[in-house]
Amino acid sequence: MALTLDELNSIRDINDAWTRYLKPTIDEIIKLIDLDPNTVMPNESDISRFTSIIEHLCQKLGSTNEVAEHALNIFVDYCENNIIGVLKSLKDGPYLLELADRWNKFKIFAKIICDLFKYLDNNYFNIERPSGSNGVLLILNLQQRAYNIFKDQIFANQIEMIEHLILDFIDQERSGETVDNSMLKNMFITLDPTLQQFYKHLEDEFLQRTRSFYQKYSQSMIETETVPDFIIKCENAFNNENERVEKYMNPSTQPKIREILDEELLRKNAHWIVQSKESGFLVLLDHNKIEDIGRMYRLMTHLDNSLGIDAMVQDFRTHIQSAGENLMLTQNVPPRLIQEIREVKEEEEEEEKEKEKLIPSQIYIIVDQVISLFRRVNRMHQELFQNLPQFGTSIQDAFSEFLNDSRSKYWMKFTESLAIYVDELMKSSLASTLNDQIQTRFDEIVGVLQYVQQKDVFINSHQYLLSQRILNQAIGESEKIEVEKVFIDKLKIRFGDSYTYKLDAMFKDLLPQVKLQQLEDDQQQGLNLGFDLQAQILTKASWSILKRENVNLPDNLQQALQSFQHLYKKIKPEREIEWFPKLGSMVVEVQFAQKKCNITMESTQALVLLNFANGAQLSVNDLSTLLKIDKDEIMMNVISLMSRPPLLIRVYEGSQGQTSIRLKDDDQLKLNKELKPKKKNFRAQRLTDQSQLKTLWLQQLVLDERKTKIDGTIVYLTRELVNNAIAQITNFIPSSFEVKQRIEDLIEREFLKRAEQNPNIIQCIY
């Protein structure tokens, strides 16, 4: 409670005020701090009373200097009575812990006293006054002066012992001993700047002990630990020392301690860490030790790239290239199964997914593993190496090297196989709807393709297989078409519009299917086909990838095609129709013993199956002769029809068939009349043999396109040469014919010559 005016006027001097009002309050504060320092706070009424008394003493009685002296003596008395006496009987650890406890209480006490003497702080101590032995003018507030008193009273004679105790305490903790560090946390940081010299000496000794410890620690670990174990302990050491600095030292010590750890743990051992043959970076990559790889990278970023990162980048490339070459140069790829999920429809019109296990070809496995390798190393680049460009360059260089290595058994086929991989993917359930998973897979495929030099082989192969999917109704659904277009868009974004213009043209050219029954009724008189015929009308320019192949068709089907062509000619007299009978699909009605079924299948499958009507028994050789189709292609179709459910079986087999026995060209086959399909309407097993890709024909197509491109480029450059020559002549305008004549004349006179490797290149003779 504030004093009344009469009470203030009754104060005779500083001693009277001290005895009657100030000292009792301060004594009570000291008692409360000893009991529980964390609960003691300055009382507003005490602050008000102290302020009025001190203002009266300074202004009315002119005792400012005496009041200031009393204020400072409060801290001197506190140190003598409450700290020094207690510490005299203690040594070592107990001494240090008690000192930390007393320092904590002193800070609380100093804060409260400064609040009580705030008037004096504002009007006396915050004015420049001579300070120290050299009398330099400084502004030292009451709290700073209190800390100086603590330093002079407590540290003056014990500073070396305190320093050693602190460092010994830290050493014990660093060595793994359990210590009570709660009282030491930030013990001396708040003493700055009054203890700068003490802290500098303490820091120097702390850093020296740290260096000595980790020199021995590092050497012992290298002798006994593997690289992964070593870098785990290194990372722990960095974390522990960071926490230690936060507890005991000033933040300015942080970079200094890190430099010591960098030097003793990393810089001196960088070569061993990265290039250890037993457990270095390359070994970690080969064993896909993700956590250890990330940890090594984080630690090596502490050093110059030349000491660690550069070697890791080189090893990263070596790892990718070695893994890729093992795929491309060897055949020892572990076999595995992939699943193709197809949608089927039950009689109750409920949708379900039926999985069929296929053993993929060797080349398909290689493509899949190349994509897996691409996925894995790019994830490392992004998640572990923080997209550091050098690692991205390693990926690019390594993939470009092994995918285009002419020593590889598969390098010429890989691009075609990548197209086949896309084809299988598009036919699988994964591509049934557009989702994040399929988009990610597309990104990976395009990512691998960017490193392939023979990109024209891929786009032609992909165009051919896309045409088969479209015409065989493998992508009849709108969602499937959307998925196909998304993949084309990704190719376009990466490689430009010119790369995909043929694919775009195919989709734009897709016209609605035309039914023969949709033509004018009066144009159909006399036709009785017994089946529905749907024709897909395509523009030849947009579908130049298709190759027409002749085949013997049943008479009724041949008649239907001729009739359609005749009637369509009446509607579109300006157009000519050319049939591709092996493309498209058919729905064949088959009468089994217990059920009649409608089976959707590819055209060549249907042509094979139709020959088994009326109980016929035929071999692969017989079918090849009847249909005039290559025997290998007949074999592929027959095997697909013998797959689950087996529509064809060997003559001597039961209704379940024996697909495990290799089919021979002369094995007699028959329709499996005893088959009991679960569904009335279903689709036959799709063709799975990747020989459907017409390799030789497509290769010739690619070569022809390359010739056209090269010729066009040469003509363009020659035209540029002529145009540049004309542009350089200013006093008259020569014709292009004259320039060409002069070029030939200069060649004849041996001023110019044609390059030996390419006669279209003109070289100057010096």
TrEMBL record:
Pfam families: Cullin (PF00888), Cullin_AB (PF26557). GO terms for molecular function: ubiquitin protein ligase binding. InterPro entries: Cullin, Cullin-like_AB, Cullin_homology, Cullin_homology_sf, Cullin_N, Cullin_neddylation_domain, Cullin_repeat-like_dom_sf, WH-like_DNA-bd_sf. GO terms for biological process: ubiquitin-dependent protein catabolic process. SUPFAM superfamilies: Cullin homology domain, Cullin repeat-like, Winged helix' DNA-binding domain. Residues 413-642 form the Cullin family profile domain. Belongs to the cullin family. PANTHER family: CULLIN. This is Putative cullin 1.
